[in-house]
């Protein structure tokens, strides 16, 4: 039996759900002995045991006071070395990943990079780029969540093609969630420049008869746009912290999830929409076309064309109940087949076995 340590120090619920779900699936197997190392206060449900190590680590990948808690970091490294893992898999970027990679013995290391090209305008762009450059030097294998950016990864960071692997995203998947037919559109997630808040504002104004739920923390750069959104009569804003239960309710209580991004590697919001059987409307930017079965699980719109996006949203809202129910079912089935953890575990194990 081989041993794998799954690591995420992220306070992001998506990263936690991804890794916790894989940990649970691997624990059912006889060929891999899985351990989990994560933040002390996870946001999503976790089946704890003596194989789950929860630590009081820095919450963000940048440098904070907790970053220099060397006694804790060294104790983690010592514990890892004592277990003699075959593989260590890092789901998210973090400053502590680097010393763990460097000092954890002979284990093969895998690092997921979610943003090959950091989003211009994002407040973390420089830090993400520096972290990408650092992990490329020390990780044995870099894992990407889409095929679109493989060559960009190779060219931008000077990494050999044999060290870059593609592994589709995954999530825990609930049972099918029936539609509510309430005519609401949902924009969910942190409101950053690249996520198209400017596009959203125009689309909202082009669709005065459609109700929009806009849920997510606001990047200070987008505050003026959000202030304008708040004045629109067909917008309901929630810029507070949202719990896992509140996120679930947000998706269930909409008919369409909208993704009017200016740029993207891939979108976890699309996966979350499929989890709750909600089709999506998205601009065809970055690797998003890999995630949408056009006219089946949702609709793709030419990037940057807000008029066409608004027209497609209006058209979607006019589908009959039978047509919408069929698309809802297709979105769930497409997402479950492509992204459910239960199906992803074999792909994950194959990735690890290919390296050992």
If you had to describe this structure to a student in words, what would you say it looks like?
The longest helix has 19 residues, at 321-339. 39% of the residues lie in helices and 17% in strands. The chain is globular. A seven-stranded parallel β-sheet has the order 3-2-1-4-5-6-7, sandwiched between helices. The chain has two domains: 2-172 and 340-355, Glycogen Phosphorylase B (Rossmann fold, 3-Layer(aba) Sandwich); 184-338, Glycogen Phosphorylase B (Rossmann fold, 3-Layer(aba) Sandwich). With 356 residues, it is α/β, with parallel strands linked by helices.
Describe the SSE topology.
Layout (H helix, E strand, L loop, with lengths): L1 E7 L4 H14 L5 E8 L12 E4 L14 H14 L3 E4 L6 H7 L4 E6 L11 H14 L2 E4 L5 H8 L6 E3 L17 E5 L8 H10 L4 E5 L7 H8 L4 E4 L5 H9 L3 E4 L8 H8 L4 E4 L14 E4 L4 H12 L3 H19 L1 H15 L1
Parallel strand pairs: 1-2, 1-4, 2-3, 4-5, 5-6, 6-7, 8-9, 8-11, 9-10, 11-12, 12-13
Key features of this structure:
13 strands; seven-stranded parallel sheet; 2 domains; six-stranded parallel sheet; Rossmann fold; 39% helix; 356 residues; globular; alpha/beta; single chain; 17% strand
Tell me the CATH topology of the largest domain. Rossmann fold
Main sheet strand line-up: 3-2-1-4-5-6-7
- What is the C-alpha radius of gyration, as a whole number of Å? 21 Å
Order of helix and strand elements from N to C terminus: EHEEHEHEHEHEEHEHEHEHEEHHH
Q: What's the name of the CATH homologous superfamily of the largest domain?
A: Glycogen Phosphorylase B
Q: What structural class do helix, strand and pairing data support?
A: alpha/beta
Number of helices: 12
